[in-house]
Amino acid sequence: QVQLVESGGGLVQPEGSLRVSCTASGFSFNSYSMNWLRQAPGKGLEWISGLNFGGDVTYYEDSVKGRFTISRDNTKNTLYLQMNSLKPEDTALYYCVRDRGYDMDYWGKGTQVTVSS
Questions:
Q1: pLDDT tens-place string over residues 73-93
Q2: Which of 19, 53, 88, 97 sees the fewest Cβ atoms within 10 Å?
Q3: Total Cβ atoms within 10 A of residue 87
Q4: CA distance 24 to 91
Q5: Is 104 within 8 Å of 11 (Cβ atoms)?
Q6: Are 2 and 98 in contact, with CB atoms under 8 Å apart?
Q7: How far apart are CA 72 and CA 23, in angstroms?
Q8: CB-neighbour burial class of residue 56 (10 A; exposed 0-12, middle 13-18, buried 19+)
Q9: Above 90 in pLDDT, residue 108?
Q10: Closest by CA position to 97, among listed 77, 79, 83
């Protein structure tokens, strides 16, 4: 069955960096676009980044553009999100989500990122 498992979250100080990962299994990872979404406390889901199956086309929400970098290693079935210059407003549960093109169908359970001094 399809599984997406996020890891790498934690507590980081403002202006710090963190890389979160998502390991995929149960499907042909290199055939799907993938996304990162997040949900801050008391707020709705927010799409923040996506990339195509080859990893050469990337998209970012404006608030993370220039600070976050999405990438993938199809040999390891792993999706990454490198986050730099983190701000307290980046505090959220970060989800890895599979993209079918017309919808997003599988989600991981999320990894918590907390930005605080």
A1: 999 999 999 999 999 999 999
A2: 88
A3: 14
A4: 24
A5: no
A6: yes
A7: 10
A8: exposed
A9: yes
A10: 79
pLDDT 10s digits, 17-62? 999 999 999 999 999 999 999 999 999 999 999 999 999 999 999 9
Structure tokens at 27: 């499907």
Q: Which of 87, 55, 90 is nearest to 74 (CA)?
A: 55
What six digits make up the tokens of 1?
């069955």
E strands within the chain?
3-7, 10-12, 18-25, 33-39, 45-51, 58-60, 68-73, 78-83, 92-99, 104-107, 111-115
Q: How far is residue 37's CA from residue 93's CA, in Å, rounded to a whole number?
A: 8
CB-based contacts of 116: which residues, under 8 Å, 6+ apart?
11, 13, 14, 88, 91
Sequence length of the chain is 117
CA dihedral 111, 28, 59, 40 (to 10 degrees): -20
Structure tokens at 79: 């999706």
